[in-house]
Design brief:
This protein is of the alpha+beta class and 614 residues long. Strands 2, 3, 4, 5, 8 and 9 form a six-stranded antiparallel beta sheet that branches. Strand 2 and strand 3 form a beta hairpin. Helix 11 packs antiparallel against helix 12, helix 12 packs parallel to helix 14 and helix 15 packs antiparallel against helix 16. The longest helix is centred in the middle third of the chain and has 53 residues. It is elongated. The termini are far apart. The C terminus is likely disordered.
Amino acid sequence: MRKQNSTFQTVFLSEAGGEPVNNDYFAYVELDKYACYVIADGLNEQPDAESARLAIETILLAFQERPSISKSALRSYLRAGNDALRKADGKNSLKASVTVLVSDYAKVRYGYAGNTRLRLYREGIVKEKTEDMSLGYDMAKAKKQTGDVLARHEERNNLSTWMGRDKGFRPFISKKIKLVNGDILTLYTRGIWENLDEGELKDIFSEAKDDPQECVDNVEDMLLSKQPEHLGNYTFVTIFADKIFLDPNKKKRIQKIILISVVIVAVILAVTLAVWLLRRQRIRRTEEMERSFQNAMEYIRDGNYVRAGEECEAALETAKKLKDKEKVEDISGYMLLIEAVNKADGLYGEQEYESAQADYMTARERSRNADHVADEYIEKKLSVINDYLSVYDYIRLGDSLSTKGDYKGAEEKYLSAKSLATRIYFDGGRKEAIEALDRLYEEMVKEQEEEEAERKELADAQAGAAEMLAQGDKAFADGDFEGAKVYYAMALDKYQKMEDDENSALAEIRLQSCVKKSTEKDEMEKMAEEYIEEAKQLEEEGNYAEAKKKYMLAKDIYKELKEDDKVSRTENQMGMLEVDAEEEEKEKEEKEKEEQKQQEAGQDGGTVSGNEAG
């Protein structure tokens, strides 16, 4: 009669969005005494994976076999779904994010694994909501960021718990929540919360009337109006608890229960008296278990997780002897938390801060299943580690800048590391920052010395190159073009090694000019030698006048080339030429005189002979 005497309206939508296949799934069963609503988001990359459907069908089947709103029943439904996905045939393991809501039409209890979401709205205010089991949620929470930031966080789908996990499947199970008339329950997948923020959904349900279909349509209209660039599968469910079940026989049942209780108490007293000796040992063990467990809780509150582990282990062993499965399960959750914290504390003590940070994050996940008993301790440790890692980040950044030669930037980072380490009393980090600064200053001094040596070496090289250039200019001015070429070539080589393009070009120009002059000199010397040869030929032919002209031309060339020895030699040749010309002229004159005498003598003999004939 519960279902008939209550009014629950369920409306949902589920679309593929921009994906080829819809891997979201929603289904529900409403029996006479209990109802079960399940939403799932398939996490497999294959478009045809049916992890969401298989999980929901298995959960609903388990619910129908043993409908209940108890915590253990809800946990068994979730484990049944997890086993089904884990044992499913296929090349790839099936995974899904799932939320289950069970109700007796007067109260609800929910359980979930992953990042599908549930919200309970009462008079437009969110009275109950789930927390994503993801690294992105933890990081956003650690930074005290709003839930809307998570919709864009790159780690939002990096889940710590999901359905289909081989080991470590630990879903969250809520306490019972009493409903009132007009409550609205919503279930939705990431296709909704990645594109619509909490405020927008709250506005829709704060103005909700009696029509759940209108609310669902408004949600979809708002989602599509945003035209998201990458819209995946999206599913949204709303359940209007317009009228909850009120038990008309509650008072009579209470009276009956009291009467029955009196009878039962009498029976129990009788039975207790009979079996007191048998139960005595169990009671003692139970008290011992509770005492050990409470001691463990005290040690946890004191931050002494080593002793907490000893007490918790003792409590666990006693619970096993009592064969109390629920206690074994609960205490095991605390034991896992303590082991994780002790492991993280050990790494922290060994200064393995990054590994310790990861293990503290794992411990924080386990603290959720242990009534958040270690949250404060873990958060303090994570805060300290964040500061320590910031010191090391400054040092690493300084090392990087130092390697790139940015000593000023490196110094700023090292000083920031030192300041932060001093402020948080981190002696190890402060010492490393100081050592880094010392290395930096040594490197700076060394580089300054090297730069000074390089400047001196460059100055010496420039002076040497300038000297070679000056020697070349002197040789060029003296007409020693070959010597000038050597000096200019040496100067050019030095300037090129110094990468002095301007002076290299100047030396190159002078070298080319020298080569040109050298070529012209060779041509003029060749011409002068030709004049000398022609002069000698003319001298042999006795044409001393023309020979002298040739010698004069050669002499003028040698004077222009500033070859004094050749000028002198040519002058000697011209002097010898003049001597030969004078001797030849003298011989010629003497010969002419001799011939003239002979002619005169011949004429005298003819006259005598004539006289004698007369």
